[in-house]
Fold this sequence. Notes:
mainly beta, nine-stranded mixed beta sheet, three-stranded antiparallel beta sheet, globular
Amino acid sequence: MDNKMLPPLQKxxxxxxxxxxxxxxxxxxxxxxxxxxxxxxxxxxFLCLPVQAQEIVRVHPPFxxxxxxxxxxxxxxxxxxxxxxLGTDCFVERLVTQDQRTWMMAYRDQGLANADWYTWEExxxxxxxxxxxxxxxxxxxxxxxxxxxxxxxxxxxxRVDGVRVLIAHLxxxxxxxxxxxxxxxxxxxxxxxxxxxHPHIHLGAWRGEMPVxxxxxxxQPEASRQQ
Length: 227
């Protein structure tokens, strides 16, 4: 997914050697008072110091328990827009047995129709308690294997602490802008629209102008049953 309607990210190109003990060791090697044993002391020191990590946001799973699904992630900078950068794409899989062999599959037969995909029209759940702040509808339904044009049908949710989450490639959305939602509430079903080649959903999160990592909270599976 590449949502052209969302603002571009502001990225920093600065690098901070103070967060990397090996960078400091490389700098100090040229100093006349450098001792090899000093490198081990530096490593031990930096391992004990707190470091600033990429923010991680824990959200409700997108599909209800006990549905089985997989997610693939976009690495930092792969996509440039908020909601895309560090985002993840999720789709349902099922165990399929053919010729006495069993494996996970995302679709039946050859997957040439949207209805062949196990994700198609699967209920999608709200990521957290919050409010719908934006909604877009793309009425064009793509066919598997054929990329559509965007932006996709999507919803953007905002949490009280300012974190925003985009969920895209939806259809039959059940919530509107300004409406409050609770984590696990059904907000729509999986579609195939926008920049998409097959039925799936895209999730992306950010705070302010910076993308954040998403973590799907699987710690309480019974709580993720469809409401």
